[in-house]
């Protein structure tokens, strides 16, 4: 995360060899019996300190977000916290002109990422997996945007979109008064402009994930398929793609999370002004903006939290279950 | 049985030449298109503002120089902000690796039933969007007083505050990766040590940790780049412009020089240089970290 910004997936992590589980369990039993009291204390600290830090800063605050969403608080002293029930949510859903556009933009963000850069990344990965010469050089070019911070990406793309000095308008002569195209300010254009930059980055990320997935495909499958007379597309569709299922799951989760996390690019671009509102931007504006409405900001955070957990929990449960079976 | 092998050999020896050439053409064109925005930024950064403002940006350059780079570097005191980043990133990376490897050691070697639950908590926390927790976190940072420990006297607006949230947030992913890695190490290793009376700490520090070097190297590379690239935490949790790490400071700098896009381009590119160096030098670690074991599926 990226932070993060870059989303990471637990599934993209090493999985123990099958059959090790039962041995491991026995070994653990043996380990435990031999522990001295001091060892137990050391171990408690080793597991406890990181857990306390993580829980305190991530989960306690997430829970606090939920609690605060039902209150109104000006942030000055705890006594000013007032229970207001569902008021914040009511206002959010009914009266906030930015809320529904933000939800819609987050959804568009996901749909665009999954429909354009993800298949493109897969396509590039399949091409680069063909034992082709200069594969590394091509990979580096596509992956470079993933390594740079989203803030830098935002500035780089501003040089392209700037209505007065940017590349596009200079090329098509739209930087003169009269036929001016404002890629950053126009609410009908700016979301799509930002999404081009986001897709530019997402493609490389997906390519790397799929390349790793393709390396795991048994070469004999491909051979068998071509012996059966299947052409390249048929082999891919009927043999390769189905075996990429674990990678596809990772890719789907990563893309959803990226769409929910989207923030930096838009913030650098135009601070989430009209046309590019996102849930993450609304929450942040509630903190660093002039009017700090803590309960209200938390209510937006709860919406984001609920959507995120609806994706994260089933995914992790499935991952861990699979691992236990292994 | 011999027919298939012959067919295969033939296929390998005579690659479809025109198709390959076409593929290379396609890849060259696409990768150049992908590098385009960056090359454009480099081009803009190399040209003096006076020239582009009269001739326009799409024009043949009369003069190319590194003036914008040196000016951006000096005028905005970039060294100072790089220093800030170092002050945050180095302790954050080291602490994250230390803490997450300790958790991983515990859950991979000693099953106290908490194992799966603990990992679940860590990884789920890591996948949350940062904005979900920022409002209470921001308030908490304002409430925690640390007179004498941080310059601001609070956790808010301090390098310590940023280090802590980075460590807390990133340790989830690292704990998961490392615990999977440690589980692949033969149990006989630690069992023997335990029988010989080695303490838990020694098993961790002298036996398990040295064997995790490849995974640690990959994670360290990833973490350095992620933490270096972080924008959000510092934008919210740091109020004094002077205390910002470089990536977030860029936002202020660009506001200062918004009249000169060439200078902003140079500044942005300078900010990207350290990540690019790390990436080119440690490319293998970076990619293997991102996809650690993904091929196993």
TrEMBL record, chain A:
Question: Transmembrane ranges?
Answer: 41-70, 107-128, 140-160, 294-317
Which interval of the chain is the signal sequence?
Answer: none
As for subcellular location, the record says:
Cell membrane
The record places domain ABC transmembrane type-1 at 103-317
A Pfam family matched in the record: BPD_transp_1
Question: Which of UniProt's keywords are assigned here?
Answer: Cell membrane, Membrane, Transmembrane, Transmembrane helix, Transport
Biased region (Low complexity) positions are: 1-14
Query: What biological process terms from GO does the record include?
Result: transmembrane transport
GO cellular component terms attached to this protein's record: plasma membrane
Membrane topology for this entry?
Answer: Multi-pass membrane protein
**Superkingdom of the organism of origin:** Bacteria
Location of the region described as Disordered in the Swiss-Prot/TrEMBL record: 1-29
PANTHER family hit by this protein: BLL4140 PROTEIN
Q: State the similarity comment.
A: Belongs to the binding-protein-dependent transport system permease family.
Q: Which named protein is this?
A: ABC transporter permease
Species for this entry: Streptomyces cellostaticus
From TrEMBL, chain B:
Acetylation listed as a keyword: no
The domain of life for this entry's organism is Bacteria
Q: Which UniProt keywords apply?
A: Cell membrane, Membrane, Transmembrane, Transmembrane helix, Transport
**Which terms under GO biological process does the entry name?**
transmembrane transport
Membrane topology label: Multi-pass membrane protein
| Gene3D superfamilies, per database record | MetI-like (1.10.3720.10)
SUPFAM superfamilies for this protein: MetI-like
Where is the protein localized?
Cell membrane
Membrane spanning segments where?
21-46, 86-107, 114-138, 158-182, 203-228, 263-282
Cite the ABC transmembrane type-1 domain residue spans from the record: 82-282
Q: Which GO terms describe its cellular component?
A: plasma membrane
| UniProt xrefs under InterPro entries | MetI-like, MetI-like_sf
**CDD domains found in the cross-reference section:** TM_PBP2 (cd06261)
Q: Which family does it belong to?
A: Belongs to the binding-protein-dependent transport system permease family.
The molecule here is called ABC transporter permease
Give the originating organism.
Answer: Streptomyces cellostaticus
